[in-house]
Design a protein that fits this description.
By secondary structure, this protein is an alpha/beta fold. It contains 33 helices and 23 strands. It is about 55% helix and about 15% strand. About 45% of the residues are buried.
């Protein structure tokens, strides 16, 4: 208790310290973005010439080193302990101890009395082998999936270029960068730390993996007019982990190491993974079984000790009860179910990194997903090429191609989309065929931020020269005096401009990025061509771009809905684009919250909001993780699917993290499941496989626990009422072993379609109620078997009509002992066979809420194994091995009682099953 309190205090303190650091980091970034560069440099104790050696040392001491720390790795002993110490292995270790005592220690001491000549250690070896295999498997899996932080840090380059007073433009290791350093950036560079842009030329930065925005972001040195709620929205701030796509810049470092946005994400990824619903569920079920064992064992021990007077035998029998109550094959069945699910998913080209995630997959009732690159293709596509009146026009595409293909600067995603679209349309229209061969480039005016447009001059084979310009709509309208529509060039009137802007606004509201395209024939001659020629142009249309959804996204979301899984979108992209994608994939937007809204919410307010909100936009990585945590705390089992660095923390916070084929390494390392194909319909298959896995695991647990509980309940009653043990310890253990072996086919059993329709979570209390309802059912027929064997069968076939208690008055000496042994052997053989029949056939009764064999059939492997188990145990009393176990052959007339008894048991079990379903609403 004390340790728990200390641990909680430490955790609260760590969270508080982290929040303070984050607030300080955000305060500095907001200040840097909204104040003139002179004031920013002064606040960082630096100048445009850079820091002196003394300044470097002072700022390193004040602001820290530029190194993202990660959680200290667990030592090998710690990881081994974590893999091997759990309720499952605790039960198995107890069993090993029991068998060590019964098979090795006690026989050894009996050697002095010459009772036994050897002892058996095979059972102990088998159990310890199960412990070893189970723990080793878990250890290997956890070692494989614990490298997310290392992958994240590996993305950063090792050097950067800085100005310092002693040396201009010197290359230094990344870790030597300090807050206040003046940094030079150029195309291809990774941003070494969070910085404020001091000067920039045509600077485009890709921060898609940080924010989810698919397009490169334009960055300038302009002071922000006001504070933004989200620091990633500042145009004059660049962040560690993003990279320069084109242009160049000079910046001053504001935050380094753990205090950067990137650093806060890395520390989140390095944290311990949350305890998932699977782990909680399995542990809870294990402790339910252990509690039953702790009640039954002392009870049986005391009852037997008092009634029989042999306390050592009573102790051994009590221990055998513990063995009988414990499903020894549980770890193996669980592992087999999970492994079978993983193999099935591998056939769908899906990597399962963590076996436990298979069941979590089936349990999720909410799937949170990023948008960019997850639901969408993460590539800009030219959706529309329209004339001024909003009609599709191939001439617009033709001119756009000439502009994008012949420009020599950086071809951005929109240029590539135009070229790709043109090449696709070539086969349908000869006017687009070989445009690059029919034209030659004459000149160009590169893109710049002041003009926000790009012009190329091309000439066809007839000698006609044409200038083609594309750019932002507002800037393009300032250089156009005419517009081309209805096959004629007409003046660009104010009314027409308003119509153009209205069309563009409508597209922007749907999330499209819109560029205008214009042309002008016979501009200035070569050599005299310049910006002055960008006037009196003819507006011919506009281009609308979007990152479209994957082909299977809409079908996947609908399939998830049909299986009881709600999809929520958590994206860093803007709300307009997100609404458009939601409409395209058929996802109703009941409510939308932005990151700025979340920032103002308390945890209590957020807990209410997440239940009624389906779409969250403009989120930071931390906010994504916060939403996932709020949903889990509300009792939901949550999956998170993403592909970027900004998704890694949310994946870690979820019950199951899923990454897609295009994900960055960090996202794949943080994920439990990786989809290698673009087909998102595999999500439905994964959920179904997870629910099958859960169904077959809970089948085994419930049917075995209830069956064993019924047997032990019968044994307890018999121990108190009968003058001899109804079954020896070895009989109980052997019965349990054969039954468990016949259950090894359960992972391959069929599952009813209805069971797969809704999410399934672990409920340990249902195991207890199931045991109490179904278990004693078998005891009713055990008692009838006791009565039949004790009062009818054994007297009839063994003692000539004399009951066991009266044997002493009819027999004496060796004959009495022989008669008692034969009576007991017949009784034990009869109950041994009846127990196996009832215990095994009831598998078919309670594996489904439907009528067994008629409405729902078990799989062929399960049917074969259960029938084989019954056959083997029925034959044993007739064999030499049965004689070794202390049985005698049963007369054929025994089966005239057994078959009607079992049929009645199956009818009663089915009736109770129906009653249980009516009371609790479900069987499994």
């Amino acid at each position: 208790m004390n340790k728990k309190k200390i641990s909680n205090r430490q955790q609260i303190r760590m969270v508080a310290e982290k929040a303070v650091r984050r607030d300080e980091q955000n305060r500095r970034m907001h200040y840097a973005a909204t104040h003139p560069i002179k004031e920013v440099l002064k606040s960082m104790d630096t100048t445009l010439r850079g820091l002196s050696d003394e300044g470097v040392a002072a700022n390193r001491s004040k602001y820290g080193i530029n190194k993202v720390t990660q959680q200290k790795k667990k030592s090998l002993p710690q990881r081994l302990a974590g893999a091997f110490i759990n309720p499952f292995t605790a039960i198995l270790f107890c069993l090993a101890l029991v068998y060590t005592m019964t098979d090795m220690i006690f026989p050894y001491f009996e050697l002095f009395g010459s009772a036994k000549e050897d002892f058996d250690c095979l059972t102990v070896v088998i159990i310890l082998s199960m412990v070893f295999l189970s723990g080793t498997l878990r250890f290997v899996q956890e070692s494989r999936s614990g490298n997310a932080a290392e992958k994240l840090l590996a993305m950063i380059t090792t050097t950067c270029t800085v100005d310092r007073k002693e040396l201009i433009k010197q290359e230094i290791p990344l870790e030597d960068v300090v807050a206040g350093d003046i940094v030079h950036l150029s195309a291809g560079d990774m941003i070494p730390a969070d910085l404020r842009i001091v000067d920039a030329k045509d600077l485009f930065i890709s921060q898609s993996s940080l924010t989810g925005e698919s397009e490169p972001i334009e960055k300038t040195a302009n002071v922000s007019a006001s504070e933004n709620d989200n620091i990633t929205e500042y145009q004059n701030i660049a962040f560690m982990g993003s990279n320069v796509v084109s242009g160049s810049a000079i910046g001053v470092i504001i935050s380094v190491g753990d205090n950067t946005l990137f650093g806060s994400m890395a520390s989140s990824v390095a944290e311990e993974a949350v305890e998932t619903s699977f782990t909680k569920g399995v542990n809870a079920v294990s402790w339910v079984l252990i509690r039953f064992m702790l009640i039954m064992v002392p009870l049986v021990f005391v009852v037997n000790g008092i009634t029989k007077g042999d306390w050592l035998q009573a102790f051994l029998f009590g221990i055998s009860i513990a063995v009988g109550l414990t499903p020894e094959m549980l770890p193996m069945i669980v592992t087999t179910c999970l492994a079978k699910g993983a193999v099935s998913m591998s056939k769908e080209k899906t990597i399962v990194k963590n076996l436990n995630s298979i069941q979590n997959f089936g349990a999720i009732d909410i799937l949170c997903t990023d948008k960019t690159g997850t639901l969408t293709q993460d590539q800009v596509v030219l959706e529309y090429h329209m004339d001024v009146m909003g009609k599709e026009d191939l001439r617009v595409l033709r001119h756009a191609y000439l502009n994008s293909y012949f420009q020599t600067g950086y071809k951005n995603l929109m240029d590539l989309a135009i070229i790709c679209k043109t090449e696709e349309e070539e086969a349908n229209d000869p006017r687009l065929l070989d445009l690059s061969e029919h034209y030659v480039k004459v000149d160009e005016i590169p893109f710049d931020f002041a003009r926000r447009r790009l012009s190329t001059v091309v000439q066809d084979k007839t000698g006609k020269t044409q200038m083609v310009t594309k750019g932002a709509v507002e800037e393009m309208l300032t250089v156009c005096s005419f517009a081309e529509y209805d096959d004629s060039v007409q003046p660009l009137t104010g009314e027409l401009k308003e119509k153009v802007l209205a069309t563009v606004d409508a597209l922007n509201d749907k999330g499209f990025r819109v560029l205008a395209i214009a042309q002008k024939s016979n501009p200035s001659p070569v050599g005299a061509f310049g910006v002055k020629d960008e006037c009196d142009m003819v507006l011919i249309g506009y281009l609308a771009f979007l990152d479209p959804p994957k082909e299977t996204t809409a079908d996947a979301i609908q399939a998830l809905k049909e299986h009881g899984v709600i999809t929520k979108i958590l994206t860093g992209d803007n709300d307009k684009v997100t609404r458009t994608i939601c409409a395209q994939v058929g996802l109703e937007v009941r409510n939308m919250l932005l990151g700025s809204d979340l920032q103002k919410m308390t945890d209590e307010e957020l807990a209410k909001a997440v239940e009624t909100t389906d779409v969250f936009a403009k989120l930071t990585p931390e906010q994504k993780a916060r939403i996932v945590t709020a949903l889990r705390q509300a009792g939901h089992t949550v999956g998170f699917m993403g592909d970027g660095i900004n998704d890694a923390a949310a994946m870690k916070s979820a019950d199951i993290g899923i990454s897609v084929d295009t994900a960055v390494d960090v996202a794949k390392e943080s994920a439990d499941i990786i989809l290698l194909e673009k087909d998102l319909m595999v999500l439905e298959k994964g959920i179904i496989e997870g629910r099958k896995t859960y169904a077959n695991m809970i089948k085994y647990i419930k049917m075995t626990a209830s069956s064993n509980f019924g047997n032990m309940f019968s044994v307890l009653a018999a121990s108190a009422l009968l003058p001899f043990l109804p079954m020896m310890s070895v009989h109980l253990i052997f019965l349990n072993l054969i039954y468990d072996l016949s259950c090894t086919a359960i992972p391959w059993d069929n599952v009813d379609e209805e069971f797969l329709k809704i999410p399934r979570t672990w409920d340990a209390s249902s195991v207890g109620s199931f045991m109490i309802w179904i278990g004693p059912t078998s005891s009713i027929f055990d008692f009838t078997t006791y009565i039949f064997m004790y009062f009818v069968f054994c007297p009839l076939f063994v003692s000539g009509g004399v009951l066991y208690n009266d044997l002493a008055s009819h027999f004496s000496g060796a004959e009495l002992s022989q008669m008692q042994t034969a009576y007991t052997a017949m009784f034990q053989a009869g109950w041994f066979v009846e127990s196996m029949w009832s215990q095994t056939l009831v598998i078919h009764m309670i594996r489904t809420p439907k009528l067994p064999f008629i409405q729902s059939r078990a799989s062929a492997p399960l049917t074969l194994l259960t029938c084989t188990g019954i056959a083997v145990l029925t034959i044993i009393p007739f064999t030499a091995f049965g004689k070794m176990l202390g049985f005698v052959a049963l007369p054929v007339t025994y089966f005239a009682y057994l078959i009607p008894c079992i049929l009645l048991y199956m009818v009663l079990a089915t009736s109770l099953k129906k009653a249980y379903v009516r009371h609790y609403g479900e069987l499994l």
